Amino acid sequence: MSENNQQTENNETVIYTVCNSHCGGACLLRVHVKDGAVIRIETDDGEEPQFRACLRCRAYRQRLYAPDRLKYPMKRVGARGEGKFERISWDEAFSTVAKELIRVRDTYGPASIIYFCSLADVHTLHTMAPMHRLLCMAGGYTPLWGFFSYEGGVFAECATYGTHMTNSTRDDLLNSRLIIMWAWDPAVSIHRCNTPYYLAQAKEAGARIIAIDPRYTDSAATFADEWVPIYPCTDAAMLIAMAYVIITENLQDQAFLDKYTVGFEKFRDYVLGIDDGKPKTPAWAEAITGAKAATIERLAREYATTKPAALITGIAPGRTAYGEQYHRAAITLSAMTGNIGISGGSSGGRSWGGEYWGGEMPFLARTKGRMGAPRNPVEEGWPTRRDTVKARGSKANSSVKINVGQIADAVLKGKAGGYPADYKLLYLANTNYVNQVLNTNKAIEAFKALEFIAVQEQFMTVTAKYADILLPVNTYFERNDFTSGGATPWYGMVNKSVEPLYESKSHLEIASGIAKAMGIDDYNDKTEEEWLKGIVEGFREVFAKDREGSDYETLKKKALYRFPTDEPYVAFKEQIEDLENHPFPTPSGKIEIYSQELADWDNPQLPPIPKYIEVWEGRNDPLAKKYPLQLVTTHARRRAHSQFDNIPWLRELIPQSVQINTADAQARGISNGDLVRVYNDRGQTVLPAEVTQRIMPGVVNIPQGAWYDPDEKGIDHGGCANVLTKDAKSPAGAFCTNTTLLQVEKWVEK
Ligand SMILES: Nc1nc2c(c(=O)[nH]1)N[C@H]1C(S)=C(S)[C@@H](COP(=O)(O)OP(=O)(O)OC[C@H]3O[C@@H](n4cnc5c(=O)[nH]c(N)nc54)[C@H](O)[C@@H]3O)O[C@H]1N2
Ligand SMILES: Nc1nc2c(c(=O)[nH]1)N[C@H]1C(S)=C(S)[C@@H](COP(=O)(O)OP(=O)(O)OC[C@H]3O[C@@H](n4cnc5c(=O)[nH]c(N)nc54)[C@H](O)[C@@H]3O)O[C@H]1N2
Ligand SMILES: [Mo]
Questions:
Q1: Closest ligand 2 atom to the C-alpha of 633?
Q2: Which pTM was predicted?
Q3: Is 622-746 in CATH node 2.40.40.20?
Q4: Which tens digit of pLDDT belongs to each residue from 106-123?
Q5: Which CATH code of 3.40.50.740, 3.40.630.10, 3.50.50.60, 3.40.50.1110 fits the domain covering 74-148+370-483+499-527?
Q6: Of 206, 239, 455, 624, which residue is most buried, by most CB within 10 angstroms?
Q7: Which of 189, 239, 702 to mutate to test the pocket of ligand 1 (most atoms within 8 A of CB)?
Q8: Whose C-alpha lies nearest to ligand 1, atom 31?
């Protein structure tokens, strides 16, 4: 059976739909519905490549029917954060939000309104567009810039390649002889559905696989021939030392560098220490990274002499202070070995999100049918920023925008602190901001200072507790949408499985209700279906013109359209095969190891060539005396960020814990399973210890996304990593989730 809406013999209807819960995946679901209720969820069993769902999708019934779902609109009656709410009607909810939007706009100006919608479901219609359109029609708002996930990577790609569409399809891994999984654990932190499937095939085909990570990850255990532990925040040093070995042994692909790149000589001078008297030798890197000099030398030779080789650069080191440099260095190394634009190689750009077919395509690409908006009046007249390159595009470049991680700082400091406005009203959708942003306790302080907060939610998250009005939004099982993804490209329909539960509404319905209450009558004249038809057609025109099976009607039936996979897509193949007719979209038309644009900024923290810059809260920071352990905060198998943390089946499967090395645990009298207090000056959290040799000494891991759960003393008992993290942003906006010092001790209840 491969079509939607078919009846089975048990009077069940099977709905084909697609899950894309901001988990990096996107998979096909076969939802069994009986008497208007979902009774079972299965996944793809059709043609290869199958897009098979993981544990989170298979547990989705518990999320859909969770007893703690928000069922109707509510207004706050207790203090902010106390969690006391009272049921109200949708009319009252809409008119309260409308009144506050108008009051704040008219009193303080539209820039004092911040609207942020994260991804949650990576869809096209029920996402950021509906409120964006409304707010633009109502006078504008302050938007945010920057990707939580990989702003460091995007910056580096734009500075070096002039674009951030740098990924090949994963089936090309089968052509690699060597795969370096640098901070890459796609068996857990999903980077497109099916990536492990292709890694397994690459391994069977004989590729050698090396993992470079502070943790012996599940992907390393399954696929790698070698694990090289490395201290967080030090990756650029190791990459640069590998460049030292390649240069001093003359192993670089000089013909490639001469033809396709600019500025290699300047990088070489830095690497050899001609500029600063400090050669960046493997011994230099060993002292910084903890990786052995001999290992660095051997890997450098191996990478330079095994062709084709794929350096897959994970984005977690890009989420550290100066993470931009790590990505710039990785691209440079890929150029030095001539692995760019060839089958089995890799661009050295970030490990996912840079797929022309999945990362940006349906959500940001300006296809015709998307819900548009007039220009945001708040952005008129602001100069472009000086901390992100032109190629990063207008989405990031207006200086009225606030960085995505900086709402708290902006609210607390406002104009007096150098921000473009004083901020009074916050409208949030698709985000558990307080839990997910760095420095949870500071976010709470800022949220208390605002005049009005509206939150669209499905659950009573910590962020929801700070709302004045709570708007219950439905799940993708209760509405239709359009999405895309895959290790090899597809796009597909999210098909509604059941009617909206309780009084919940879709994003479009909520924005339409507020628009009406604001008196904006021309907000929307299309139904959900009309929008989606237009979106599919606009999208087809760009990506799948006239391709059979890619039209709206067929998609509604099959849910998925798979692009033909006869040949892997290789990023930058065109440029490498025919540079004259296909220059890189950089000012020089080449790969810019040296960027004149960056040179013109004259900012030592964003140098024109990749450099190793020591982080704050690193191992050499004086603070390390008091807080000697480095924190990483990985993406958890049982969650998508904070989503699914409340789902009983998943909680039972993998309890939240802090991973700590056996030696560090012994030194602190900690045994496996003991409750420990993890703390620094910003916060503290109590959770069980997982004592293991699968993390290097000196580093601990708290998987991000566990729900903040403070006691009356303000100590978190949920295992929320962000009570510890620092909300400083890297110079070009990298979100520093992995740059934090802390201490761990056995928890003794006082
Ligand atoms: N299951 C699941 N999958 C997800 C998500 C999820 O929430 N759940 N979220 C999705 C999203 S939106 C994103 S952005 C991605 C995130 O994808 P990633 O950033 O790749 O995921 P992480 O798990 O944070 O980190 C991957 C590995 O990097 C290592 N690491 C951390 N810091 C450093 C460092 O400084 N140097 C080195 N060498 N290694 C380091 C970690 O130990 C970990 O093994 O995942 C996506 N996939
Ligand atoms: N310490 C640390 N912090 C991190 C990270 C890290 O690695 N370490 N990673 C960062 C990254 S890469 C990311 S992308 C962010 C993610 O940060 P967020 O995008 O804020 O994370 P989510 O937990 O997915 O929050 C989505 C919320 O929206 C609600 N919601 C409202 N409407 C809808 C809807 O229509 N559909 C769905 N599905 N949910 C809805 C969900 O219930 C949920 O509470 O976290 C960042 N935070
Ligand atoms: Mo992310």
A1: 8
A2: 0.97
A3: yes
A4: 999 999 999 999 999 999
A5: 3.40.50.740
A6: 239
A7: 189
A8: 316
